[in-house]
Amino acid sequence: MKPGIHPEYRPVVFRDISTQATYLIRSTMTSKQTIEWSDGNTYPLVDVEITADSHPFYTGKARRLSITGRVEKFQQRYGKTK
């Protein structure tokens, strides 16, 4: 690899914002937030919306949205007026 053109590859903590689960993995992501890990070191912290801890495919809990309310809301907003 060419020196000086690649981002730094280091340990980063990812936190699921819905379940508060944390994962320490290596990444090139940067963040101004930091967190102290159980090993006593401080790592950059990146908040993410979905991880394997909260995704319906991995948890086995499917989320169903109410479509009827969404259709009526769409028709009220964009439907033809009489």
TrEMBL record:
Q: What is this protein called?
A: Large ribosomal subunit protein bL31B
MF term (GO), any: structural constituent of ribosome
Member of which family?
Belongs to the bacterial ribosomal protein bL31 family. Type B subfamily.
The record's section on Pfam families has: Ribosomal_L31
Q: Which PANTHER family match?
A: 50S RIBOSOMAL PROTEIN L31, CHLOROPLASTIC, LARGE RIBOSOMAL SUBUNIT PROTEIN BL31C
Organism from which the protein derives: Arachnia propionica
HAMAP family attached to this UniProt entry: Ribosomal_bL31_2
Q: Does the keyword Ribonucleoprotein apply?
A: yes
Alphabetical list of InterPro entries matching this protein: Ribosomal_bL28/bL31-like_sf, Ribosomal_bL31, Ribosomal_bL31_B, Ribosomal_bL31_sf
Domain of life of the source: Bacteria
Signal sequence span is none
